[in-house]
């Protein structure tokens, strides 16, 4: 991906960049010949079941590299494609990956002046529509990969207080957008929100 593409926020979510895949493989250090990966057939079955096509390079990552990693990112590990973090909770609404993720800019609902009954339906969508949960940093901080909607391919941090997109163009971090940028930022041992 070119520097201009990173700055404008455009990502190729349809074809995996070999350089991105190489940096992701290096970051995770998986050397089992793809034995911990799902394989293309399982990824296609997941996509068909949920009515989505996973964005690249995540799609190739789970198909060919590994389906989750206890080492991270995030802090408590990268969960498998069809999994949720242990602290996700029971009794939550059924997640609908085919319905679009509703946000395109950061939202701090904790400070939203609208009444709770007005924002509650949007909150449910933020947590449960159009994204897969990659894992948790604990304390209700979940990293999501958007799979449907205008922010498809972007990573979001969704917490009990608000939601923030990951990527330098959003002003919170120096990392490039998308799964590859998120992994590279973690592998470089940088703070998630390191923008000055």
UniProtKB/TrEMBL annotation:
<dbReference type="Pfam" id="PF09346">
    <property type="entry name" value="SMI1_KNR4"/>
</dbReference>
<feature type="domain" description="Knr4/Smi1-like">
    <location>
        <begin position="29"/>
        <end position="185"/>
    </location>
</feature>
<dbReference type="InterPro" id="IPR037883">
    <property type="entry name" value="Knr4/Smi1-like_sf"/>
</dbReference>
<dbReference type="InterPro" id="IPR018958">
    <property type="entry name" value="Knr4/Smi1-like_dom"/>
</dbReference>
<protein>
    <submittedName>
        <fullName>SMI1 / KNR4 family (SUKH-1)</fullName>
    </submittedName>
</protein>
């Amino acid at each position: 991906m070119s520097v201009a593409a990173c700055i404008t926020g455009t990502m190729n979510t349809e074809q995996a960049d070999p350089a991105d895949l190489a940096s992701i493989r290096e970051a995770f250090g998986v050397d089992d010949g793809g034995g911990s990966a799902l394989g293309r057939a399982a990824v296609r079955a997941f996509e068909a079941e949920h009515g989505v096509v996973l964005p690249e390079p995540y799609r190739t990552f789970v198909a060919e590299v590994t389906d989750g990693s206890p080492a991270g990112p995030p802090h408590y590990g990268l969960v498998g494609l069809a999994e949720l973090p242990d602290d996700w909770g029971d009794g939550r609404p059924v997640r609908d990956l085919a319905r679009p993720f509703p946000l395109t800019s950061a939202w701090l609902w904790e400070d939203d002046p609208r009444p709770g009954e007005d924002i509650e339906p949007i909150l449910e969508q933020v947590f449960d529509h159009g994204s897969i949960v990659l894992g948790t940093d604990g304390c209700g901080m979940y990293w999501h990969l958007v799979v449907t909607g205008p922010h498809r391919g972007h990573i979001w941090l969704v917490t009990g207080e608000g939601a923030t997109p990951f990527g330098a163009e959003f002003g919170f971090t120096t990392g490039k957008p998308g799964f590859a940028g998120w992994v590279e930022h973690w592998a470089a041992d940088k703070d998630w929100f390191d923008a000055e």
